[in-house]
User: Fold these one by one.
Assistant:
Number 1:
Amino acid sequence: MQKVYGLLAGLLLAGSAQAAIQSQVIEYKIDGESYTGYLAYDDAITGERPGVLVVHEWWGHTDYVRSRADKLAELGYTALALDMYGTGKVADHPDDALKFMKVVSENQPLAEKRFNAAYVLLQADNHVDAERIAAIGYCFGGSTVLNVARQNSVDLAGVVSFHGGLATQAPAEKGRLTTPILVLNGAADPMVPPEQVAGFESEMKNAGADYRLVSYEGAVHSFTNPGANLLGERFNMPLAYDEVADKDSWQQMQVFLERVFGQ
């Protein structure tokens, strides 16, 4: 462990995030239920480019996850911030977030169905190289992309977990886990205690995984979210933004994506 200090869919044009970055709200359905995605890409780039799925925190599909899709578009990727809960299911309170999260986190086949629907959606976009798709996730989303990698249900170039839970009820199996993994973790995150980190590293080594775990000293849960402090204070939760960890973890992700996409 290294320690570091210091996208059936109707398109609705939602405007552009900035200069050449275009964004679209995408309404799609899974088993008759509505879901809302957010697609971002740079229209100054011609042709196909790698795609990145972005999985939200336990709060649901918020502006925060859309902002991360925009940032990926600025890097030259086509990004789809997907929806794991369903249209309108965005939590304002931890109790609601927990309820929404448990529906999918305790039902892996359902979680995979919702993730895979977004994967197919992104693959079909004409800005995307369908053979080069990765996924990143935050908090609940980080756990989600790790579990997708463990099950190897879709062909992903790589997955990145930002302050996601590392425990699982379905550990990776040797020979099955072939997706490269990058975990960006807060070393002081009480939601991901040292024993969970140790268990994850043991799991990855036993599975022969291509993985790397970076742990940020002093960083707690949600360290990439500028709104974390307010949420932490409001609900008395160990959430806090860490600018150093946020910036470095984003850089670590960039290097990782360049590697797995062969750029």
Number 2:
Amino acid sequence: MAGQNLHASALLLGDRGVLIAGASGSGKTTLALALIEGFARHGRFARLVSDDQILISARNGRIFCRAPSTIAGLAEIHGVGPRPLDFEPGMIADLLVRLVPAASAQRFQEAGTESLAGCDIPCLQLAAGNAQAAVLAVASWFSAPPFRQSAMHSG
């Protein structure tokens, strides 16, 4: 099964799939690894699906993601190169995080939507290069520690 190649990283946080898209050098890998580390620190399952490239396709109205076989299980660490780590073979995406220049990122926002592979997905536009703030935004979106479920949205 082929798929559309998207310049993005993908990871599972518990039972939720996150796509992180952005320009080269925007911090996709840094954010993915920071999210994995943060969720694991709170005893929650978190695992990379693919770093830097992901194959996406529509399945039952949702976005299915998997790693290209040539990079499965590798994360490219800036200045060091590709390094192996545990990974999941695929996931359904629940949230798209688009890393944008800081001047374009809004301080407060409701998630918009984007269309990928013919499917709509909630999208947060967050400042590139600020993994610490982005980790908090994603954790709050999923009501993950240190945040709790709120009446505002259920992620």
Number 3:
Amino acid sequence: MSFGHTPTAFIVQCEQPCYMTGQNPLPKDVIPPQDVTCLDTKIFLDIPDVTIDDKKYSEIDFKTQAEKGMTPAGYALATFTAGGDNTAESLETANKLYGAVNAALRDRGNRSILYRLKTVHFFIGSQLAASKGPEGKKLVIRNLKKTIKNCGRCTSEERSKFEEMLQAAEAP
């Protein structure tokens, strides 16, 4: 006997990513990347180093540059500006790694590192969107505005550079 219904299946993902604990709910716009995996080493307190596409977060961690006197914003500008070696693929990898750590920090309620990480993460997002050409323009503008908003420890030169990039993105 048929009732004219096509069978449907629902896929429910019950397991959370290895870097998440479930301690705190995430904002709706923070979606932990599912394809990032964990390593045995720690990057912050109890947060594991994460990897994807043969790249580890610890290899692109903004904190390693702080010891050399570089701010998170300075590191973002020097390391993740679109063009040259920073292809859409490499920026996507960096975006996923920073996205995983962003989610893990929020999950654990660690705000002190999160604020510095968000500057780098939003800048990576802006450059990833820029690599997509005109269709990425709205996202470039959104992420540059968020980069500037979270740029509490930026130098005046870094803030000016972000503002110049935003003005260029907003131009017709």
